[in-house]
Amino acid sequence: MGNKETKRFNVAVLGAAGGIGQPLSLLLATSPYVQRLHVYDVVPVVNGVGVDLSHINTPVQCKGFAGDLKDAEASAKTLREALAGSDVVVIPAGVPRKPGMTRADLFNVNAGIVAGLVEGIADACPKAMVCIISNPVNATVPIAAEVLKKKGCYDPKRLFGVSTLDVVRARKFIAEKAQIDPEDLDITVIGGHSGVTILPLLSQTSPKVELSDEEIEALTSRIQNAGTEVVEAKAGGGSATLSMAYAGYRFATSVMAALSGKSGIVECAYVPSDLTDLSFFASKVELGPEGAKSIVPFKDLSKFETEKLENEVKVELAKNIKQGVEFVANL
C-alpha cells in the first residue's frame, strides 16, 4: 500500500457498562485510531464488558475496570488506573432520562458523577481530550471546567460537550425530506444540547435545501425534541442509546483523526467559546493536535433563527451554565 500506519491512541470510556457505554465501546474497539481501550464503571459487569470486547479480532487491547460504590477510596484508585496514560476520555456515565423525569432530577444525579470522574482525569491524565456525553451537557461541561480549574489543569481547548447527535439527527431528518444521502448534507447546529437550546441552522444547509417556514418550524421542533421521541417510543425502556453511541464514536474519531495530524476536521461541539456573551456555546469547531484549534463563527442567521437564539437559546443556556458553575462552587 505504501501508506504509513494510522497513529493509534489510548482511550478510556467512563460509564462503559450502560446503554450508551457498551455500544460506544464496541464501536471504539473496531476503530483504526484506538490502540488501547479501558472501560470503567461502578458496576461489576464492566469487567465482563472488557473481556467481551477483548475477544474481537482487532489490534485494540481492551480491559475492564470496576469501581466500588461502597468504597470511594478504592473506586477512585481504580478510576485512576483506568485513566492512566489516556489520550482521549469519553464520558457517557450517569443515569438516562426516564419518562416523567425532569432535567432538574437528571442534573442532581449526574452532576456529582461527572465531577468525581473529572477529578480522576485531573489526577491521572490531565492532558487528555475530555468528551462529555453525560446529560445535561449544558451544565455538565461547565462542571468539568470548574473542577479542572480547581485542580489547576484546565485547558479550554481540550474540553468538549458532545452535541454531535443533534447534527446527526438534523442531517438524517432533512436528508429524508430532501431525498438525498445524509452524508452529503452539511448542517450547523448551534446553542446547547437540550430542548430549546438546540438551534439547527436550516437556512444554511449545504447543499441548499428549500424549506417552507412551516417545515423549518416543524423540523426545528423535531430536532429539539428528538430525545423525547426516543424515550416515549421505548415506553420507559430507555433513552437514545444507540444513536448517541454512534454520535459519540463519530466525535471521538474526529478528535483522534485531528490528534494524528489530519487537517481540516470540523465538528459541531459544545465548548468554552467567545462567539456569544455566554461562556459555553455549541458551534462548529476546527479540531487539531492540541484539541480545539479554532471556533468557527456562524454566518448571518434568518429572522426565525435570530429570534430563537436571543429569546430561547441564550436565556435557557445561561441558566444551565450558571447551575453547573454554582454546583462546583458549593462542593
From TrEMBL:
NCBIfam families listed in its UniProt record: MDH_euk_gproteo
GO term, biological process aspect, one: carboxylic acid metabolic process
Residues the entry annotates as binding NAD(+): 15-21, 41, 110, 133-135, 244
Lineage top rank: taxon: Eukaryota
Catalytic residues (UniProt): 193
Top enzyme category: oxidoreductase
One Pfam family named in its UniProt record: Ldh_1_C
Name used for this protein in its record: malate dehydrogenase
A single GO cellular-component term on record: cytoplasm
Catalytic activity as recorded in UniProt: (S)-malate + NAD(+) = oxaloacetate + NADH + H(+)
Family designation: Belongs to the LDH/MDH superfamily. MDH type 1 family.
PANTHER family: MALATE AND LACTATE DEHYDROGENASE, MALATE DEHYDROGENASE, MITOCHONDRIAL
Residues engaged in binding substrate: 97, 103, 135, 169
Entry EC no(s): 1.1.1.37
UniProt GO molecular function: L-malate dehydrogenase (NAD+) activity
Quaternary structure, from the entry: Homodimer.
Record key words, sorted: NAD, Oxidoreductase, Tricarboxylic acid cycle
